[in-house]
């Protein structure tokens, strides 16, 4: 693969079990694709990234990918083409069921979901793998997303010759996974050692299946050869590749809006008609036909039409317990815009048809294939036709629906707010919209605990977002800052039902999406705040949730359009990058400076401790930066380059950067020693530093505002093993000048001992007045 220029990164960690991943996004020089690479080396040690990307998008990217931590120990990634999520190589197991072969009328014998999510792999709270009557073990693993591996931690090991098969649901049947490698196998015995059942990714082929009233991506593990019921699993984790974010049912059945009996072709039937009231609640009174509807043999020429506000993937039929057994079958159809079409992959848990209460589920149809229609003067709904054949004698008390997964589309920006995943800046729909997931989830975007906000301000796209936490005497606040090019908004509230949107500014938006960053600061004793920082069209803006402050007065020359030698290059104003250094409490701003610039070439740094800017001149120009943490929580900052490397920044243990000696330069302001009309000569200098171990400082003179230093220099050494503070002295003769500037240059550090200047003083002599 060609050299990848690193454009962004995040340190993703999880604790159940412990994982550490340095994830970076990058592209070739021609920006023809977008990739995500993973490095698991412990921070801050050096190590290689995966040779192959863990995620790629080769269809062309609308914007550079961005990461965000997501709920449920996951990380989200959006690049304008795909919105993806990843939970590491060992995600939690949402369902671990032990049951029969895929017999639709048989309940699962054991639900071991809690047991296999134990923190301790040696726990006695385990899943015992009991055999079915055919001497096989059937395990059903439910996942939030399609898998490529299942890791099994063995409690009590199998000691008999046995084999394992793994199947997944294709939408109509169970199918064997490809290239299965049984990592639990030892000496011909499956489930003998802790290991991974690895196989080719099923991300593009697996479909949702409903088992035990759960709509998940289910995998069937069939074990043949166990000789007893003593084998146990103490833990199970899942390996789902980074893939598109999916919508999973929130588990709450949906109420229907309208129900009616009609002829099977949909035309009105004389007689029965509307039965909405009979099926609207669980209140069957035997003999009172206003509380139920009887499904009898005469329904074979009719159809039951039930309308919902949402597309479905299942309908629950609640029957009176005294319903008679019969041999009927049921077919569910949806309206495709011109005719009724049978659903695909129908699974009937009421079989034989309406003999028992239960779900009839199916594989959701592709987005755009189902259409609403109106019946009997009702508003347009998603109607489902249920037709019957065979013999029936059932009392139908109530029906409810299981919504189909929503087509989420793709977004440009992920964010974490109130422990919810927020997707902003839709690509296919409104670019000023956002979706908010259910609490603590990264895959539930349906139901009352999720939210879709379709219009934020004008129609211009959202370009950046981040969460601010603050605390004052009124309590705690967790708000989402949302930036557009010319607007700034604030999302406040504690739930999706009491949220409020506030327009903070219609002047100071964010014109460079990747310049947006969040800095954690302490503002006064006992007051903690986050500060959002970004590049607007006229300056660098800092926002603490209350006031917008322009912190770029000292560097306003870079925003003056007429300053063609320094100002931001107009064509690259949206390419600027910003990141924070938590250790040093700094904001780094990287941008294209000068009218002829064709790429990022300048890095300025704002120190919150000093309230001032300074310039960093590296041997290379960083393309991004992000915070990383050691296992003990110590913070470091990594920076990405155009050559495919990640650099550890502000590293005191080295004196080179990317193989080049680091040169530190301090330049003072131009100083009139007496007044603006008095020439003087500098005779002596004294540089106060903390004691070092051998790195000398070279001091030079800048006369009367010259652009370069004089040729004469003086070198002072901060080395003195007997002192904590060293006074390096030098005799000089710099002048005759009105203004005197000084430049201190140090090449490299010495070992782990840093060059730490304290003060520069001197002795000067007046010469003459200069009029």
| Poorly predicted ranges | none
The biggest beta sheet, please?
Answer: 7 strands, antiparallel
Helicity, in percent?
A: under 10%
Q: How much is the radius of gyration in Å?
A: 34 Å
Shape: elongated
Integer count of domains: 4
- Cα distance, first to last residue? 67 Å
Mean pLDDT: 90
* Annotation, overall tally of beta strands: 59
How many helix segments?
2
Short structural description:
The chain has 4 domains: 95-239, Jelly Rolls (Sandwich), CATH 2.60.120.260; 258-403, Jelly Rolls; 456-617, no CATH class; 664-769, Jelly Rolls. The chain is 1% helix and 46% strand. It has 2 helices and 59 strands.
SSE diagram, text form:
Elements: E1 5-15, E2 18-27, E3 34-39, E4 55-57, E5 66-70, E6 74-78, E7 83-86, E8 95-99, E9 110-111, H1 113-116, E10 127-128, E11 136-143, E12 149-154, E13 163-169, E14 174-176, E15 181-182, E16 195-198, E17 209-211, E18 214-224, E19 232-239, E20 243-244, E21 258-263, H2 276-279, E22 293-296, E23 302-308, E24 312-319, E25 329-335, E26 340-342, E27 344-348, E28 358-363, E29 382-389, E30 393-403, E31 411-417, E32 420-426, E33 434-436, E34 451-453, E35 462-472, E36 475-484, E37 488-492, E38 500-505, E39 517-522, E40 528-535, E41 540-543, E42 548-550, E43 577-581, E44 586-591, E45 602-607, E46 612-616, E47 624-629, E48 635-640, E49 646-649, E50 656-657, E51 660-661, E52 663-667, E53 671-672, E54 678-690, E55 697-703, E56 713-716, E57 725-737, E58 739-747, E59 757-769
Antiparallel strand pairs: 1-2, 2-3, 3-4, 5-6, 6-7, 7-20, 8-9, 8-11, 10-19, 11-18, 12-16, 12-19, 13-14, 13-18, 15-16, 17-18, 21-23, 22-30, 23-29, 24-28, 24-30, 25-26, 25-29, 27-28, 31-32, 32-33, 33-34, 35-36, 36-37, 37-38, 39-40, 40-41, 41-42, 43-44, 44-45, 45-46, 47-48, 48-49, 50-51, 52-58, ...
């Amino acid at each position: 693969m060609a050299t990848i220029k690193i454009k962004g990164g995040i340190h993703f960690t999880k604790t159940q079990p412990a994982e550490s991943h340095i994830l970076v996004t990058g592209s070739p020089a021609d920006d023809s694709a977008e990739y995500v690479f993973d490095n698991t080396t412990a921070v801050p040690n050096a190590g290689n990234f995966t040779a192959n990307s863990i995620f790629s998008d080769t269809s062309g990217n609308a914007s550079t990918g961005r990461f965000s931590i997501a709920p449920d120990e996951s990380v989200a990634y959006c690049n304008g083409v795909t919105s993806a999520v990843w939970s590491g190589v060992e995600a939690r197991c949402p369902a671990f069921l032990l049951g029969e072969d895929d017999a639709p009328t048989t309940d699962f014998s054991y639900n071991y979901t809690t047991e296999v999510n134990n923190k301790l792999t040696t726990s006695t709270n385990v899943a015992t793998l009991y055999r079915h009557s055919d001497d096989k073990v059937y395990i059903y693993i439910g996942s939030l997303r399609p898998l490529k591996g299942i890791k099994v931690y063995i409690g009590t090991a199998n000691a008999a010759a046995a084999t394992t098969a793994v199947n997944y649901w294709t939408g109509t049947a169970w199918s064997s996974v490809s290239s299965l490698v049984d990592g639990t196998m030892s000496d011909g015995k499956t489930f003998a050692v802790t290991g991974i059942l690895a196989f080719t990714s099923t991300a593009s082929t697996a479909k949702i299946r409903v088992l035990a009233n759960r709509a998940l991506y289910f995998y069937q593990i069939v074990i043949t050869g166990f000789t007893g019921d003593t084998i146990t699993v103490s833990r199970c984790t899942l390996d789902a590749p980074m893939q598109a974010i999916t919508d999973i049912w929130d588990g709450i059945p949906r109420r229907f809006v309208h129900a009616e009996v009609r002829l099977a072709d949909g035309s009105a039937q004389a007689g029965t008609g509307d039965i909405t009231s009979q099926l609207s609640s669980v209140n069957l009174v035997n003999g009172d036909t206003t509380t139920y509807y009887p499904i009898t043999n005469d329904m074979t020429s009719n159809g039951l039409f039930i309308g919902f506000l949402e597309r479905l993937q299942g309908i629950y039929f609640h029957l009176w317990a005294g319903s008679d057994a019969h041999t009927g079958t049921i077919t569910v159809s949806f309206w495709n815009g011109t005719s009724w079409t049978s659903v695909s992959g129908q699974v009937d848990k009421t079989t034989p048809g309406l003999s028992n209460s239960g779900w009839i589920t199916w594989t959701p149809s592709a987005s755009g294939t189902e259409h609403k229609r109106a019946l009997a003067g009702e508003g347009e709904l998603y109607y489902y036709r249920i037709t019957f054949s065979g013999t029936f004698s059932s009392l139908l008390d109530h029906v409810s629906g299981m919504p189909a997964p929503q087509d989420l589309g793709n977004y440009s920006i992920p964010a974490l707010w109130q422990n919810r995943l927020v997707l902003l800046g839709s690509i296919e729909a409104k670019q000023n919209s956002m979706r908010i997931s259910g609490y603590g989830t990264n895959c539930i975007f349906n139901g009352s605990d999720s939210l879709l906000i379709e219009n934020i301000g004008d129609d211009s796209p959202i370009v950046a977002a981040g969460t601010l936490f603050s605390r004052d005497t009124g309590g705690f606040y967790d708000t989402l800052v949302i930036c557009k090019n010319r607007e700034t908004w604030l999302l406040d509230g504690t739930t999706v039902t009491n949220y409020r949107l506030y327009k903070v500014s219609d002047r100071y938006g964010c014109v460079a999406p990747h310049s947006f960053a969040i800095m954690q600061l302490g503002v006064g004793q006992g007051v903690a705040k986050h500060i959002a920082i970004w590049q607007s069209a006229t300056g660098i803006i800092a926002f603490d949730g209350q006031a917008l402050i322009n912190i770029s007065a000292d560097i306003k020359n870079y925003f003056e359009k007429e300053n063609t030698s320094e100002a931001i290059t107009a064509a690259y104003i949206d390419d600027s990058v910003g990141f924070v250094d938590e250790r040093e409490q700094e904001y780094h701003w990287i941008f294209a400076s000068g009218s002829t610039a064709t790429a990022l070439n300048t890095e300025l740094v704002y120190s919150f401790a000093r309230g001032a800017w300074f310039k960093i001149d590296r041997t290379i120009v960083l393309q991004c930066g992000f915070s990383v943490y050691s296992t003990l929580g110590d913070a470091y900052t990594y920076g990405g380059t155009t050559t495919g490397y990640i650099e550890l920044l502000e590293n005191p243990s080295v004196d080179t950067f990317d193989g080049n000696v680091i040169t530190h330069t301090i330049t003072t302001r131009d100083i009139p020693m007496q007044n603006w009309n008095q020439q003087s000569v500098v005779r002596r200098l004294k540089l106060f530093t903390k004691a070092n171990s051998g790195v000398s400082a070279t001091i030079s003179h800048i006369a009367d505002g010259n652009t370069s230093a004089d040729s004469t220099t003086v070198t002072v050494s901060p080395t003195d093993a007997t002192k904590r503070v060293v006074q390096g002295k030098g005799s000089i003769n710099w002048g005759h000048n009105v203004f005197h500037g000084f430049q201190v240059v140090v090449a490299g550090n010495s070992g782990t001992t840093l060059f730490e200047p304290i003060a520069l003083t001197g002795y000067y002599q007046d010469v003459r007045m200069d009029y």
